[in-house]
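Q: Is it fine to ask for two folds in a single conversation?
A: Yes, each is treated on its own. Send the first.
Q: Here.
A: Result:
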Amino acid sequence: MRQALQLLREDEELSELENLLAFFATFVLKTEIVQQIMRWDLAVLQQSPWYQQILQEGVKIGEQRGEKRGEQKGILSGIVLGLELKFGSSGKEIFSEINTMENIQVL
């Protein structure tokens, strides 16, 4: 890997492939070792467009999961309120069974 890195850094046209080399190297080496060989600083990596794109995709996935959980909590709160209004305290007993359902469409 060190030899490949040296060759890439010597050729200006190939220097852009340095990130790709590091990416594939992480499949067979620990990330810390790759960082040492590449002499990379994590703060520098975080500025790369590739890192930013991966980060944005992660944020998007997290937001979608959060929205789904929030929607489920809202539906469950509405069900609890409805059961209490209709059945009083015995409605809470019914809710324990309903609360185990994970399919939002069924709720």
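Q: Second one now.
A: Result:
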Amino acid sequence: MKSNPITFRADEEIALMLNTMHVRQTTATLSVLELFTAIRKETVRELKGRFSRKEVMALVDSYKVSTPGLQSMATSYVLIGHTKDAERDFKSTSSNNANLNVLIDKLKMLTSGQAAILQLELWAYWNRNEDDVPDLEKFIARFV
């Protein structure tokens, strides 16, 4: 597999965590990224079929304007609060003919990992290369 060099600066907390995993931070970082990639793929598979098309569209619309901070995404409560706020401010759920209460009940059933990956996928949908128009149908198909 081809590899590409990536350089980044980690804050002290992340650097210390990496040091607990391996004497070489590069090795620890690669391990974490490989594990995250596998977890992301499996979690998207777990989420498939949990939401209707209308609910996925509502979630996509809710992330068009604002996104919670990455550090706070590891809880379904942030996702629920964000979804409620987006409905109140932008009618993201009702404009997609989805039922807010049913959607909230489904979001309450998510594990912290599922909530985090779902929010990351929604964030990524809107934050790709500006020349790459996101394919809504392709995105919806991953979850419905």
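Q: Anything structural to flag on that second result?
A: Two points. Residues 21 and 50 are 34 Å apart (CA to CA). The first helix runs from residue 12 to 21.
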